Amino acid sequence: MYRYMVKRLLLMVPTIFGAAVLAFFLLRIIPGDVCELRYGGFEGLSSAEEALRLCQEDLGIDQPRLVQFGDFIGDLIVFDLGKSMWTRRPVTYELGLRFQLSVQLALMAIVISVAIGIPLGTIAAVRQDTWLDYAARTFSIVGIAIPSFWFGIMIILGLLIATQGLFGDPWMPPIHYVSPLEDPIGNMVQLIWPAVATGYRYSAALTRWTRSALLEVLREDYIRTARAKGLIEKIVINRHALKNSMLPVVTVIGMEFAGLMSGLVVTEQVFNLNGIGKLFVESVNVHDYVMTQSLVMLFALIFIVTNFLVDIFYAWLDPRIRYS
Q1: Does residue 322 fall inside a structural domain?
Q2: Considering the domain boundaries, does residue 205 fall inside one?
Q3: What is the structure's pLDDT at 106?
Q4: The pTM is what?
Q5: In degrees, to the nearest 5, what angle opens at C-alpha 247 toward C-alphas 244 and 253?
Q6: What percent of the chain has pLDDT over 70?
Q7: Could you give the CA distance from residue 6 to residue 312 in angstroms, rounded to a whole number?
Q8: Three-class SS of residue 27?
Q9: What Å distances lie between residue 91 and 1, 16, 28, 293, CA to CA?
Q10: Of 158, 152, 122, which is closest to residue 265 (Cα–Cα)?
Q11: Is residue 306 within 8 Å of residue 258, measured between CB atoms?
Q12: pLDDT of 139 over the 80 cut
């Protein structure tokens, strides 16, 4: 087990390096840069051309690509993410403003999806081909079919109508993020609805995965043996069937969390949340190489670490698994 963990940790290094290579060179394929975006509208003016040259020289993007790549890798090794080319503020500062929001929203969405998806999928599998099963499958199909941003818009409209009729003043999404340490109630009011909108969609997929995995396990011989010995059905489901069917479900949960950290762009726009997804889109639009590269590396690291933790969690769920 420990050899496997060390091997996986060592394999993270070439994976991260490959992500760094792709992030750096693919960004340079895109025509233009941040300086041309600032001063490109004044073509023909000597002052604008001089400002463009000085801007590129100041940011170091006039250097050969290999020199820029070497500087990027060197800074990455010492965990120096540099400064944003657009705002000229440290990348760590820009990320610090948004990372807490994105992590909290992703965790809340995962908690909601797990709290709904696993029990619903379990009920659907245990009560296969009954009205409970059909209701759970309908719930999952609707959740997968409805985009989370559209569901979010419907939530906002519903709250506007409800609060206007009850209190007179309609509810509006808060503009500024409030830390849960400063104002827990205000923080929950701000993030609970985007978490519900996102968590519902992921709970629908989790319901289908749980149902399919549990149905497969319930047909195994050892489940029939446990029932034949007279074990209570609750013990058969919870102790023997459910735990052994969680391997694909845990994988889905891990990938959902990693995807939520990097894929909430539209939901953040709908609920006016200034998270990492929104920052990533803005960085690409303004050709901010430093910020975009840092975000790509952050997303890659989140996926790699999440994958590693999920694989380690397998051994606890299923003692038969032994890595060598």
Answers
A1: no
A2: yes
A3: 87
A4: 0.80
A5: 135
A6: 90
A7: 12
A8: helix
A9: 37, 19, 19, 10
A10: 152
A11: yes
A12: yes
| Count of domains forming the chain | 2
Q: Is the pLDDT of residue 251 over 80?
A: yes
> Do 75 and 100 fall within a single domain?
no
Owning domain of residue 70: 32-80
Contact 266, 112 (CB under 8 A): no
Retrieve residue 250's tokens.
Answer: 């845990």
* 66 and 103 within one domain: no
Mean pLDDT, residues 184-203: 84
Enumerate long-range contacts of 31-36, CB under 8 Å, 24 or more apart: 32/287, 33/61, 33/287, 33/289, 34/59, 34/61, 34/85, 34/86, 34/286, 34/287, 34/288, 34/289, 35/59, 35/61, 36/287
Verify that 100 and 184 share a domain, yes or no.
Answer: yes
What distance in Å separates the CA atoms of residue 55 and residue 52, rounded to the nearest whole number? 5
Mean confidence (pLDDT) of the chain: 81
What's the pLDDT at 272?
Answer: 77
pLDDT in tens, 53-103: 787 778 777 788 888 888 888 888 888 888 888 888 888 888 887 888 888
Task: Quote the Cα angle for 9-12-15, to 5°.
Answer: 165
Using CB atoms within 10 Å of the CB of residue 97, give its burial: 0 to 12 exposed, 13 to 18 middle, 19+ buried: middle
Q: Is the pLDDT of residue 174 over 70?
A: no
Confirm whether 148 is domain-assigned. Answer: yes
* Residue in 289, 253, 281, 254 with CA at minimum distance from that of residue 265: 281
CA dist 200 to 3, 5, 48, 144, Å? 39, 34, 51, 9
Taking residue 256's Cβ as centre, other Cβ atoms within 10 Å add up to 25
Pairwise CA distance, residues 60 & 45, whole Å: 23
